[in-house]
Amino acid sequence: MKSLSIGSAIVLLVLVAASESAKTESTIFGPQPMQYPMPATSTFIVSDFLQFLQTAVTCFNKLRIPEERFPLYLAGVFPNCPETQCFVRCLSANLNLYCDETGSDIDRHYLQYGLGQDYNCFRQKAEQCLAANTSPCNDPCEAAYKQELCFLEEFRKYVDSNMNSLIAAVAVEKTENNPVYYNMNCRLASALAPFGTRDPPPGPLREAQTACVKYLGICKTRLVQYNNSIYPTDHDTMCMVRCAGIIVGFWDDSQGFKLEGLMQLYPQLAADSRAQQQILSCAEQRIATCPPPDTCAKAYNAFRCFLDAQKHGFGVREPQPEEPMSTVVDAQEFMRSISICSKIQRIPKNLQDLYLQGVFPNDEKTRGFMRCFGIRTELYDDMQGPNISRLYRLFGTGQSETEFRRKAELCIKANQPLLDGQDKNVKAYRTLYLCFSKQITAFIRANANAMP
Ligand SMILES: *[C@@H]1O[C@H](CO)[C@@H](O)[C@H](O)[C@H]1NC(C)=O
Ligand SMILES: *[C@@H]1O[C@H](CO)[C@@H](O)[C@H](O)[C@H]1NC(C)=O
């Protein structure tokens, strides 16, 4: 059943590819499109196909979507249901193509998926589609899904043109006419596995995995995944985890999950009591949700709690006191404030693009934006002006606060005579932006790619 749907998905993938190339568009008699400059690549890093697949696999695992969906998604078939919507959001957000606050970024889609199309056509088509699909919507996954479907055709072409070798591999299998489907599943798994190369599990766990795959009769190529710490949510994998857990000592059918077994394998975990707590409480909750007789699923769900915690790293941050920086705006909040104030002030897209490159021209809209931004981040106040100690904590690394303050006050004072009779926006622009422009610009450029 599972294998069958993967088989049909591959067929579908090929069909999609065929129909796409048969389609020709005539633009000869269309209206003359407005000319836009090509997008600048400076603030966006295009993911290569391996990174793309890796991101897709990570989202897929994170959202615990049934395995047989993966080939469908890769074929660009996205059924309209909550988990698919969230997958689309996760993938696009992690490729930095989409974010909840500003929506789909046309230029970035062009750079990532555009494959040398005419930029102006691409942009016009995307703008029209996005305008029709950007209605307010409470569910972030649904909102992302609606907008990202505007790029479905490009997504399909992109995957298709990069997947040729995989399709070829599967096609050979198909024409051989033997019990192919099971093998195809293995092929697909092993073809995708190397892309997810992560820290391999410690030796004893790898050996246990190897023994269990053999004992359970799971196809051997799946070891490539397991040896890369990739554990999809299929039942074979779940039973492999139970088996390996019994061997290395983190699972016992009657005692349940045993953290000591993992602490022996991962010394950093033994030193991180906070992570231990987190894993244990996660495992308790998850095991409670498994149907009682299925020990494979129970063992697997507990193990996943460990994997989730491992992603954030063990050790180092152990006795963390409540860090004092929490009162200061962080990078994400900073970037979020830019998009929120852009919306509040109805900043046109072309200006917003400049802001995201750290450029703030001295015009009326931008001055209004800067006041909104300053007040929202509490870096600025109409009465007090810029909050220098707060700015220092955000930007001041590497210099003394006295020096930072001296320069700031000098600049703010120098601007004072220019503020007489001017409105509040001018004051914010001159004293917050002009006096800290270098830091603000550098900060935005450093974090543009880290936008959620
Ligand atoms: C996985 O790791 C085990 C133990 O190190 C090794 O024997 C086996 O060959 C590996 N398998 C693959 C497919 O990488
Ligand atoms: C400036 O920011 C700091 C740190 O966030 C805060 O404690 C202080 O009250 C602020 N000062 C003013 C004048 O708002």
Tell me about this structure:
- This protein has three domains: 49-159, Pheromone/general odorant binding protein domain (Recoverin, domain 1, Orthogonal Bundle), CATH 1.10.238.20; 203-312, Recoverin, domain 1; 331-447, Recoverin, domain 1 (Orthogonal Bundle).
- Helix content is 62%, strand content 3%.
- The protein is built from 22 helices and six strands.
- It has helices spanning 2-22, 49-62, 69-74, 82-94, 106-113, 119-132, 140-148, 152-175, 180-192, 203-216, 222-227, 235-248, 259-265, 267-270, 273-289, 295-311, 331-344, 349-355, 364-376, 388-395, 401-415, 424-447; strands spanning 98-99, 103-104, 251-252, 256-257, 380-381, 385-386.
- A two-stranded antiparallel sheet has the order 1-2. The chain has a two-stranded antiparallel ribbon with strand order 3-4. A two-stranded antiparallel sheet has the order 5-6.
- Helix 1 (2-22) crosses helix 9, helix 12 (235-248) packs across helix 16 (295-311) and helix 15 (273-289) packs antiparallel against helix 16 (295-311).
- The chain is globular and about 80 Å long.
- One 2-acetamido-2-deoxy-beta-D-glucopyranose binds at residues 206-207, 210, 223-224, 227.
- It is found in: Secreted.
- Belongs to the PBP/GOBP family.
- It holds the Pfam family PBP_GOBP.
- One of its GO terms (molecular function) is odorant binding.
